[in-house]
Amino acid sequence: MKYLIPVLLLIAAAANAQKITGKVLDTNSKPIAGASIIASGSGTTTKEDGSFAITLTSKDKHFTVSTVGYDTYTQVLTAESNYTIVLQSSLHNLNEVVLVGTRSSGRTRLNTVAPVDVFNISKLQAQSPQNDLNQLLQYVSPSFNSNRQSSSDGSEHIDPASIRGLGPDQLLVLINGKRRHTTSLVNNQGTVGNGSVGTDLNAIPVSAIERIEVLRDGASAQYGSDAIAGVVNIVLKQNTHQLFASATGGVTSRGDGGLGQLNLNYGTGLGKNGGFINLTAEGSYRDKTTRAQNNNLIIFDQSSLNNYFAYDFTDDPAASRKYDDDMLKSKGLKRDDFNFQIGDAKIKNGGAFFNLSLPFGKSEIYAFGGYNYRRGQGFGFRRLPSDPTVNVYSIYPDGFQPATDSKIQDRAVTVGIRHQLGNWHADLSNTKGDNRFDYEVDHTVNASLQNASPTSFKAGGHEFLQSTTNFDISRRFRNLNLAFGAEFRIDDYRIRAGEEASWKNYALVTNPDGTVSNPSGLAGGSQSFPGFSPDNAIHKSRNNTGVYADAEYDVTSRWLLSGAARLEHYSDFGTAFSGKLATRYKLSSVFNVRGAFSNGFRAPSLHQQYFSYISTDILPDNTLGQSGFFRNESPVAKALGIPALKQETSLNYSLGFTAQPVSNFNVSVDGYLTDIKNRIVLTGSFGFDPNGDAVESIQNIINPLGASSARFFSNGVDTRTMGIDVVADYTLKAFTASLGLNINKNKITGTHVPASLKGQEQIFFSPNDSTLITEGTPRVKANLSLTYTFKKFSVLLRNVYFGEVARNSFPYGEVQVHKGKVVTDLSLSYNVKPFTFTIGANNLLDVFPDKQVYGNSYFGVFKYASVQMGTLGSFYFARVTMNLPTM
To answer: What is d(CA 335, CA 299) in angstroms, rounded to the nearest whole number?
Structure first.
């Protein structure tokens, strides 16, 4: 009997026990191994696939799930016997969980091994005065720089962008973690990023984006070539049953630069397994601006009656204008004959994007991509009526200012499948992207055709296509995340010739001795932007194969160790290896230290290998003339001893800390150093000596090719970039403050002048290009954003400090330091669901860069350089947005 009672009690307990099973996942639906499952009388941990089983008693009403790096979750028992538990990251909210820089799940920007900024684009788009992606990032990310350029051919239509003062082609862009193609444009008109090839961020509709992650660290070992400076990962929207619409209008304080923009986004569910499709359409119109210096100028006769130039004459505008007008009248001219159109280009932009997911069983088919079409109109240097070699008086008796028109098509699509292979996660995808850029030149002439010249020319263009196939496989063990993968990429680049009249000089004659001369001196090709000739036309491709391994190991609950290795083989540049080692250590629950070391590489782009062109530019002898870009394989390059291109290599170091002393305040501080060897740059203009005098021996080589100067790409310099980033956020109920600071210094540590060019160091790498690299972007950039919400109202006040920069805008100018400036943004919003009405201003106080010194202003015409905040001035806007839930 004494044994019967315990047995009966055990039977009764067993009868009232309940067995519970389930899975524990992160917010990306990946299993979490080693999570603790605790009830009042029992406990267990999850397996590698996130599954668990636990037996509960009748007294248990709930159980808890916990693990390092995630919020503890309490599950109340229901009639169900199988549960799916999704854990949220513990250090910050969901939209701060990052995908870039790690192949593990659940990392936040405060517990990654390398610095990552996370920007909620949906929130920024609602309140910010900026309307395109480049400008949005320019005003919220201290390490990011992008400026609109003026009178710079294609760079007026595609804004170059960079981080930490490095080149646009040293920044890799991803969409949903997949490589985005670059443009077909080579920046070659003396802008920031001169000689580089970047990615057109403005081809991606802002309304399609949920958030952007900016990895501020070298990542070649993780993502391959182009990631020397860092990575921008654009995460597309996945929301369903929501219609978003936004309409924005605006204008500058000077009444130009008018803007109209319409954004639409809609998502809906597909099937019963959580599938979705999210669709976006966006259209915008931005009018040109005029920022030429033409109010306090005098046009005068310099050296001969036929040469007229503009210059600063007096501080008395009325006296200048009267003298000017009287002088012009005596010559039979008028002031408008000399006005320049200088400022932002006119842009029409339209595009559509989609994001699709179709889960089934243990698999998921996904796809995303879109199409963007842009029409742009920029303006070249004005041709004065006094120069008969570039003008046709019967067509333009008062001279003319050419317009360069662009037609840009940008398209991309990614298709892939994810599949659960036991405990492994596999991902196979292909991404195809293409950028096509076509030029037209209007309001111009081919002077060599004289009266027979047309005034509009199709000048040809360029195109770049990239196809990338990826296979990635990963698995989470208890404390270890392993990932392996392979990538095969095809790059394809071509230049298309323009119509004959756009590039040919019909005044050239062949002499009896076989030499070519131009006895009339008439210029050929369409003025301002001569077309691409058949000699420029080319079609080249290459392939690249890469394999990588990536591991993240939680050595302890405090110590995280990360490593990556990558081997890549180029069909035209051989094999390169890169590696990365990084770590993060929790000194306490609120304070982390982290550091990383990596080496990287960047192969020359096909553009840099095969771009050639003859364009109109300001030559070292202070005149407008034809400047040629020649391939390194060309006879001209070989005659001058210009070597073939090779890859850039880099070493990256970073060290910093993150802290979250209280739940509503966090801060990160990261120092960095990046050494780049054999950096690819454009040479100076061969054909002239450092004093601007023509070198006859070189002129004899290049003049028959229609050029007066010759430039090439070269692995010309070594550089060192070092600095510090500070990011801090503070939230108190309805008030939020965000501070960002970047202090950055670029230095040239060495040059690589071929032995055959000794004595021509300043030509091989010019002082102008040196200044662009070392001081072309602000050494200090800081932003402080304050937002406050009261009932239905919210206000944004943002101040951005753009530190000093230096520019030498023209060959005959001087290095000018532009002082630091503060730009103030202000907006006020009122919400009446589902609508939000916003008014505000960018650059409320109408701040401009310093005026250019005379030597850098093209005889006083260019009042401001396109540096720091650009030349827009105050911009006022009004916006209405709608967020409407749908069934």
So the answer is: 8
Q: 501: how many CB neighbours lie within 10 A of its CB? A: 21
What confidence score (pLDDT) does residue 93 get?
39
Are the C-beta atoms of 159 and 148 separated by less than 8 Å?
yes
**Strands, E assignment, 702-811:** 709-711, 713-732, 735-751, 780-790, 793-802, 805-807
Work out the burial of residue 588: count CB atoms within 10 Å of its CB; fewer than 13 is exposed, 13-18 middle, 19 or more buried.
exposed
User: Which of 400, 296, 390, 299 minimizes the C-alpha distance to 341?
Assistant: 400
> Mind listing the domains of the chain with CATH numbers?
4-88 (2.60.40.1120), 96-294+339-885 (2.40.170.20), 295-338 (no CATH)
What's the token pair of residue 312? 């600063």
Q: Report which residue type is found at 34.
A: G
Q: What is the C-alpha separation between 629 and 620, in angstroms, rounded?
A: 15
| 571-603: pLDDT as tens digits | 998 899 999 999 999 999 899 999 999 999 899
Fill in the amino acid letter for 52.
Answer: F
Closest CA to 70 of 107, 38, 45, 104: 107
Structure tokens at 459: 């000048």
As a 3-state breakdown, the chain gives helix, strand, coil percent values, each rounded to 5, of: 15, 50, 40
DSSP 150: S
Its pTM stands at 0.85
Across the range 375-390, mean pLDDT stands at 84
Both tokens of 574, joined, read: 């051989």
Evaluate the CA torsion angle 700, 705, 711, 713 in order and state its sign.
Answer: negative
